[in-house]
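A reminder from the course coordinator: this example appears on the midterm review sheet, so study it carefully.

Given structure:
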């Protein structure tokens, strides 16, 4: 290559490089996606959807029979028979225990004999008054004696009846306090009965929870004997007063009819879940999304057209790291879900991740 030719080639390459440099400076190409992200702030977004924000009170209690009866001896004496044991079923009117009756029956026979004597005398002498063979006063005295004798018969019949302990209704024997052959005094416990047709679980709840409960409200019940089979129940009654020391109120939950293959007895431990303050379709936001310029002025940043818009909100209850929003937002709104303190209104942002709640 000659010297002149080489100079002309170098001049041509230099001119080409100059034209390329000028073109690059004067005509910028379209921005890439990375360039766009560099001009906006990444944030964690949260989309509002209805949530179940209901509160559930969880507690436990001992299962009891709704009606328990303690039968006592009504008169003193030797207990001659006791016909039942724990677990026996009894019917209304069944004789469960009897005290010594020999003396009482002897007294009854004496009183009956006395009444029979005065009745015969009265019936024999009453017609004689009409024939003026005796005075009316003599017949009146016999009538009084007869009434006394008949009342004596009723007295001993009543005492015999009281010596027998009868079941007042259909029930099951839960405890036997005495054995036959021993002496029992008046008002001494003999047996305890329970009506197992209705089982209840009394529990004590905070006054803050009780105000949200209603009679017949459904309750879920678990017993340790059947850990995989929840039972249905309902609130039977809420006691009218709270304990003065603990401020807790007794709530009685009735267990619904049991399946035939389940045996649940008084004394079992029951674990209850009671829904209180139901909020099935609540709008709520993460606590970390909420800002406040003052205690009465709370706001969030809503993402609209990739920019932040400050929106004032009215809040309700706070549960499970969530705060209920009762006004200011709607379902479907997207907000900055966490760490919004360093952001400002009208900042251009893009959602780099989503906040999930459970």
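Designed residues:
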């Amino acid at each position: 290559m000659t010297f002149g030719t080489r100079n002309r080639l170098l001049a041509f390459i230099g001119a080409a490089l100059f034209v390329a440099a000028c073109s690059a400076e004067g005509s910028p190409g379209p921005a890439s996606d990375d360039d766009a992200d560099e001009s906006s702030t990444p944030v964690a977004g949260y989309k509002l959807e209805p949530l179940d924000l209901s509160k559930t009170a969880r507690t436990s209690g001992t299962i009891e029979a709704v009606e328990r009866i303690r039968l006592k001896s009504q008169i003193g004496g030797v207990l001659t028979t006791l016909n039942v044991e724990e677990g026996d079923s009894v019917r209304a009117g069944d004789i469960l225990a009897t005290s010594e009756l020999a003396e009482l029956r002897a007294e009854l026979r004496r009183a009956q004999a006395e009444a029979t004597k005065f009745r015969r005398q009265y019936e024999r002498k009453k017609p004689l008054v009409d024939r003026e063979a005796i005075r009316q006063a003599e017949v009146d005295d016999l009538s009084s004696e007869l009434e006394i004798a008949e009342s004596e018969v009723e007295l001993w019949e009543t005492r015999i009846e009281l010596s027998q302990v009868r079941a007042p209704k259909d029930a099951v024997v839960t405890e036997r306090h005495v054995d036959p052959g021993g002496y029992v005094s008046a008002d001494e416990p003999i047996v305890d009965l329970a009506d197992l047709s209705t089982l209840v679980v009394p529990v004590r709840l905070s006054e803050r929870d009780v105000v949200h409960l209603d009679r017949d409200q459904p309750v879920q019940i678990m017993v340790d004997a059947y850990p995989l089979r929840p039972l249905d129940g309902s609130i039977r009654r809420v006691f009218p007063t709270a304990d003065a020391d603990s401020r807790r109120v007794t709530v009685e939950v009735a267990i619904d009819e049991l399946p035939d293959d389940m045996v649940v007895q008084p004394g079992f431990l029951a674990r209850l879940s009671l829904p209180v303050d139901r909020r099935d379709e609540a709008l709520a936001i993460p606590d970390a999304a909420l800002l406040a310029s003052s205690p009465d002025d709370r706001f969030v940043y809503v993402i609209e057209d990739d920019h932040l818009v400050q929106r004032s909100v009215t809040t309700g209850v706070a549960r499970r790291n969530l705060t209920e929003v009762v006004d200011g937002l709607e379902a479907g709104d997207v907000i900055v879900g966490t760490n919004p303190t360093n952001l400002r209104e009208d900042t251009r942002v893009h959602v780099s991740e989503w906040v999930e709640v459970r």
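Residues 58-66+195-276 form a domain with the Elongation Factor Tu (Ef-tu); domain 3 fold (CATH 2.40.30.170). Residues 266 and 350 are 61 Å apart (CA to CA).
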